[in-house]
Amino acid sequence: MHRIYRITLDDALPMLAAARAKAEEIGVRQTICVCDDGGHVLALHRMPGARLTGVEISMAKAFTAAGHERATHKFNEPPNGPALPGNEAFGISHMYPGKFAIFVGGFPIEYDGQIVGAVGVSGGNGEQDKAVGAAALEAFAKHVAELGLGG
């Protein structure tokens, strides 16, 4: 028997708030997407002035991180990033056109050893997207602790 955990909108909202606060702190207009373990959007926030393209990009980053259970930037980290030319997954982004992102900004959400969702961040450079994603993940961990769930 396998136990499956699901995140809800109530779990996603603290993540969006923390991610937005971090983006404001570092002065970047971001779009933040939180999805469930199936890559389905639970919550999305496009900050005022954030690029229109960030909506689809953040959704693709979240989808990819949830579906492949890894941060999206790990696909292209030299020397063994699987999506780099000559490596085993080169071209993988063509499998789900418009939905599969292999660059910085997608981060899986883990609870009790399971991937329960992901957050996708778009609008900054790689370091900025990582910082905003980290804030979202920290907020999730705090939220879970406050609920007394451990994990």
Structure overview:
InterPro entries: GlcG_carb_metab_protein (IPR052517), PduO/GlcC-like (IPR005624), PduO/GlcC-like_sf (IPR038084). With 151 residues, this protein is α+β, with helices and mostly antiparallel strands. The protein has one domain: 2-Layer Sandwich (Beta-Lactamase). 36% of the residues lie in helices and 18% in strands. It has a 4-stranded antiparallel β-sheet with strand order 2-1-4-3. The mean pLDDT is 93.
Structural class: alpha+beta
Overall structural domain count: 1
N to C succession of SSEs? HEEHEEH
Helix share, percent:
25-40%
Average pLDDT reading: 93
Instruction: Report the end-to-end length measured between terminal Cα atoms.
Output: 18 Å
Residue stretches low in confidence (pLDDT < 50, at least 5 long) are none
Q: What does the overall shape look like?
A: globular
- Say what oligomer this is: single chain
> What percentage of the residues does DSSP assign to strands (E)?
15-25%
Instruction: Tell me the CATH architecture.
Output: 2-Layer Sandwich
- Given this structure, which CATH class is correct? Alpha Beta
Largest sheet: 4 strands, antiparallel
Please identify which CATH superfamily we are dealing with.
Answer: Haem-degrading domain
Q: In CATH terms, what is the fold-level topology?
A: Beta-Lactamase
Record the strand order, biggest sheet: 2-1-4-3
Number of strands: 4
Pfam families: HbpS-like
InterPro entries: GlcG_carb_metab_protein, PduO/GlcC-like, PduO/GlcC-like_sf
